[in-house]
Design goal:
Layout (H helix, E strand, L loop, with lengths): L1 H39 L11 E9 L14 E7 L7 H6 L3 E4 L15 E8 L6 E2 L1 E7 L10 E6 L1 E2 L2 E5 L2 E2 L5 E3 L2 E3 L11
Parallel strand pairs: 1-11, 1-12
Antiparallel strand pairs: 1-4, 2-3, 2-6, 5-10, 6-7, 8-9
């Protein structure tokens, strides 16, 4: 019985010592993690900056009645280029130097067709360009989506309503940047991609 009491005493002392040391270790570990977080988080737990957005409204002159026949409007997108004219349209898109809506390059991802007006919005990834040189609404008229000649420019962001003079847009980072576009199917802008 005496041996049992001695063993119990030693076990209890070791357990008490371990618990006391464990608390100290946990306290130091907690303080270290907290200190690392404070030093590592330069400005504390500040929320990320808002995204840079290109948005606007596309208005179709003449409304729904002005659209070409349905079988000639396969897809509709808004495309914004950092550099214009682009050396390689699809290379610019793949290298993220051009932005387009909606995301995805499938035929079923399209802006609303046969509408009087359509709102659009594109999130521009960081770092945002200083300006967008060419913003256009393009329409796919041929199912060969990878041929530049399959796309027709139907409206551009322009100077004072002049469809022949594209307007550049100065981009404000971490803010919404607007570019409204009027599409007149009877008066198309010059076709730069053919």
């Amino acid at each position: 019985m005496r041996v049992f009491c001695l063993i119990t005493h030693v076990v209890l002392r070791c357990t008490a010592s371990f618990i006391a040391n464990r608390r100290a270790v946990l306290l130091w570990l907690w303080c270290g993690l907290l200190g690392a977080a404070v030093v590592g988080c330069d400005e504390g737990l500040k929320p990320p900056p808002p995204p840079t957005i290109l948005s606007g409204t596309i208005t179709y002159v003449g409304g729904r009645a002005s659209w070409p026949p349905a079988d000639s409007v396969l897809n509709l997108r808004l495309v914004a280029f950092k550099e214009f004219p682009p050396r390689d349209i699809f290379g610019e898109i793949i290298m993220r130097r051009a932005y387009y809506t909606p995301e995805g390059l499938t035929l079923d991802s399209t802006l609303a067709k046969f509408a009087e007006r359509t709102a659009y919005s594109i999130e521009i990834p960081d770092p945002a360009p200083e300006e967008l040189q060419y913003i256009a609404v393009v329409m796919l008229v041929n199912p060969q989506i990878l041929l530049p000649s399959s796309w027709r420019v139907v409206g551009i962001h322009n100077v004072n309503g002049d469809n022949t003079r594209p307007a550049r847009l100065r981009v404000t980072p971490n803010a919404e940047n607007r570019a409204d576009i009027r599409v007149d199917f009877r008066n198309l802008p010059p076709q730069p991609f053919n």
